[in-house]
Amino acid sequence: MTSTDQQPFLSVRDLKVHFSTEDGVVKAVDGLSFDLAKGKTLGIVGESGSGKSVTNLTILGLHDRDRTAIDGEILLDGKELLTATERELEQLRGNKMSMIFQDALASLSPYHTIGKQIGETYRKHTGASKAEARTRAIEMLRRVGIPQPDVRVDDYPHQFSGGMRQRAMIAMALVCDPELLVADEPTTALDVTVQAQIMDLLKDLQQEFGTAIIFITHDLGVIADIADDVLVMYGGRCVERGTKKEVLRAPQHPYTWGLLGSMPTLDGPVDVPLTPIPGSPPSLLNPPTGCRFHPRCTFKEKVQGGLCSTEQPLLEITDGRGAACHLTADQRRDYFADQTATRSH
């Protein structure tokens, strides 16, 4: 996803994250690779249970080390994260990399003011005084658009609206100017107007700081607004990736077609029903053989020899573009063209 002459700021190679449970081993992420450059946004999209959040919690080292088996490589600005100690990760978290969680109310402490929580993060990584940390907290609240920040800095989370709490979370995540920001569905619980404001805020702050952003979502509409590149996950694996334009305008995988087909459009006819993806996501305790999407795929009969159910399709990446599917390139192009024509009439 990055040009060959530019070293990626974040590089993930063949990442596997497996959890031990009473019922067996959960293969939450099963061989994932991608790159991300500074100042760029990677959108990771997929249904619940596809491995999106697990991937990014692993990048930040926020996993249970006693129950988690991890293999692969994660390089952040050249530093290997999977072999880093907890002390080293603590220094990186909040300073070099940071995360915005989906539920700001659950992530913020109800017992401390917004300003104290932002300020403590700043003090931990910079050694600033309490007065300096308070000044920095007010500055960050102003930067994320909180009105009267010098007054609201002393409010508690329950005194903020949902949108303001999310802005406060962004302020806390950015207080130490991290170079990597992971946003885990940060706008899911917000109304459309506030969602748009948060998206604009993230884009403005990225332009100001040059931050690399991983944006996790199940909503391709959000991806269309914020991402430079898109990675589509299903059953713990990447099934498609490319630039935003490539994935949204000329998708190559039946799962991506299904995601697009289940979304309403503003320019299409209002009387065309949405087409849900049949079936349910796979169990990661006992995933299907072959292509993990094949039990739900309406195109598997087009592939000769029943390969979809027996052989895992390779994800062949050329210039950052690829899809893991046994359909030929011509078949994929023709089937998607037919789907597009059907929806537009």
Automatic annotation (TrEMBL):
PROSITE patterns: ABC_TRANSPORTER_1 (PS00211), ABC_TRANSPORTER_2 (PS50893). GO terms for molecular function: ATP binding. It comes from the Bacteria. Residues 12-260 form the ABC transporter domain. CDD domains: ABC_NikE_OppD_transporters. It is a peripheral membrane protein. Keywords: ATP-binding, Cell membrane, Membrane, Nucleotide-binding, Transport. The keyword Nucleotide-binding applies. Belongs to the ABC transporter superfamily. This is ABC transporter ATP-binding protein. The lineage of its organism: Bacteria, Bacillati, Actinomycetota, Actinomycetes, Kitasatosporales.
